Amino acid sequence: MTNAINEVSDVAKRIAMQASAIPMSHFRAPLNITDKADDSPVTIADQKTETFIRHALECSFPDHGIFGEEYGISGSLEGETWIVDPIDGTRSFITGSPLFGMLMGYLVEGEPRLGLVRMPALNETYVGVPGVGASCNDLPIRCRETQALDDALVYINEAERIQKMNPALFTRLCTIGHTRRMAYDCYPHALVASGQIDAVIDCGLEPYDYLPLVGLVHAAGGIITDWGGNALTLESDGRVVTAATPELHAQVLSVLND
């Protein structure tokens, strides 16, 4: 099994590295931007990148299902499945921020077996295989061991959305931890996996936003669930908590559900 998952990991990393050239060829260049039905922006870079990834996956794993942000589901999601977000953080991408990512997750019967976060503009590739380990650019990474929320370095993603959804909760979140930062998208979750920060509160996510993170965070020794503490699945409601330790995770959930 280890040899097989290592082969899958090597293929995923190769595809992500090759696909990175597409968004980078459009980064900080003039772009036509279209709003989708949910008012989220999409560009030709999103579409071309997913097309490339899908084709590469289909060539390497013709029997695997694929669920991508731009082109939906092909094949079955009941067996071996890839979850793909070609540009996670299109708003970052179109505003010239280098903090957009590329996400790929490999699931077997719904169980995350590999998570990959590629940061094209930063040239960083985070890969995690639960039970094997996690790496950034092939160097081992692991979550911090912070257990007390008062000592934690916390990122609050989608702050405007949380404030609009629950002003009282947003006020509480602005007081937690040793240090707080407002952020977006996948990179803060990768920072938890790499031991740079301790926790991320996130919301408004789709399966292609959060499922690729699960394998990475678990492989690095962290916890990632919904706001109720439940495992993330295709049916989760998009509210996500990532934490470095079980103790810290429990404290964040307590704040969210107070």
From TrEMBL:
Top-rank taxon: Bacteria
Alphabetically ordered keywords of this record: Hydrolase, Magnesium, Metal-binding
Listed Pfam families: Inositol_P (PF00459)
Alphabetical list of InterPro entries matching this protein: Inositol_monoP_metal-BS (IPR020583), Inositol_monophosphatase-like (IPR000760)
Family: Belongs to the inositol monophosphatase superfamily.
Protein name, per record: Inositol monophosphatase
Organism from which the protein derives: Aliiroseovarius salicola
